[in-house]
Write a structure and sequence with these properties.
Helix content: over 70%
Number of strands: 3
Length: 309
């Protein structure tokens, strides 16, 4: 085994283990609050599905990629490769869609009662489950085309035109077929990429206007409410900027991968690393701004208080 492969294997292993532990902590915290009877927000259901999606991606992409980098490259059958690719694509897409829903529902939640969002603010909790369910259905259907061209790596056939991932390979696409498949698979992600900045920008504007009104009425003295607003703003901005940065990098690598005739192993590793970064980092971003103590305190406060992330 080359020293470079060993180093990448350690990096993948660290990223996967840390990501799984982070998502487990976030999911267990959310479930504990649910079972304890605390007042939960409509976004809590979205967060739980986000962690499940992250789990799926890290288990079905991070673990196989780690094993491949460490030299264990022939441990899947054709059916195993197809299943692994399908599940990790569904998990990746659902992770992004859940983050998008989180931004939209949070923007609706903190909007003033006299705004155009007032009616949606009342109805939003009832549509949370339906929205999450439809996202799962969308990604389960869209990614059906993924396993069609995925096979196990074989040494007895011509693999020069296939994209190798270390443990499985993908190809051979005609140019037109590749373009159609890429557009179909990228559509949900691009849609999220357009909605999330809009929702987050609306949220920042709402919080800024509220802060200006509060300072005008009560002076510049800091308050618990303004602190909550700051945490909410920072959380959304950090989550969205992380999503957009990593997606842009991943999309650039994907395009480069598509037009390149000969894909290097380094490009495969870089693609896997960037794709797994958001599922691994997102739980820590959420937990860093939303402690159990603040959540338990929220369960005892008035519903009219601004709910932070």
């Amino acid at each position: 085994m080359a020293s470079g492969d060993l180093a990448m294997g350690v990096v993948f292993l660290t990223q996967t283990v840390v990501g799984i532990l982070g998502n487990f902590c976030l999911l267990s915290s959310s479930l504990c609050l649910y079972c304890s009877g605390c007042r939960l927000r409509c976004t809590d259901l979205i967060i739980r599905h986000l962690t499940v999606a992250n789990f799926l991606f890290l288990l079905f992409r991070g673990v196989p990629q780690t094993m491949a980098a460490l030299g264990f490259r022939h441990f899947f059958s054709d059916l195993g490769c197809k299943l692994v690719f399908y599940v990790h694509r569904v998990g990746r897409g659902m992770s992004f869609s859940s983050t998008c829903l989180l931004s939209v529902f949070q923007a609706i939640t903190i909007s003033p009662r006299d705004s155009r969002w007032a009616e949606l603010q009342v109805k939003a909790p009832r549509y949370t489950g339906t929205s999450v369910f439809l996202c799962w259905i969308l990604h389960l259907l869209v990614n059906i085309i993924v396993p069609v061209h995925v096979t196990v790596n074989r040494g007895d056939i011509n693999m020069t035109q296939r994209k190798k991932f270390g443990y499985c390979s993908d190809g051979n696409y005609e140019r037109n077929v590749y373009a159609i498949n890429s557009a179909l698979l990228s559509f949900p992600d691009v849609l999220c990429l357009g909605i999330m900045p809009w929702a987050s920008g609306s949220m920042v504007l709402i919080l800024y206007r509220h802060k200006q009104r509060f300072q005008h009425l009560h002076g510049s003295r800091p308050s618990r409410r303004s602190s909550a607003e700051s945490r909410a703003t920072e959380t959304v901005l950090l989550l969205v900027s992380t999503f957009m940065s990593l997606y842009t990098l991943s999309f650039t690598i994907h395009i480069w991968w598509g037009v390149s005739g000969n894909v290097s192993e380094l490009l495969v590793y870089l693609s896997a690393l960037t794709n797994a970064s958001f599922p691994a980092l997102s739980p820590f971003i959420l937990m860093s701004r939303d402690t159990n103590v603040s959540r338990l305190c929220w369960s005892r406060t008035s519903p009219s208080v601004l709910r932070n992330m």
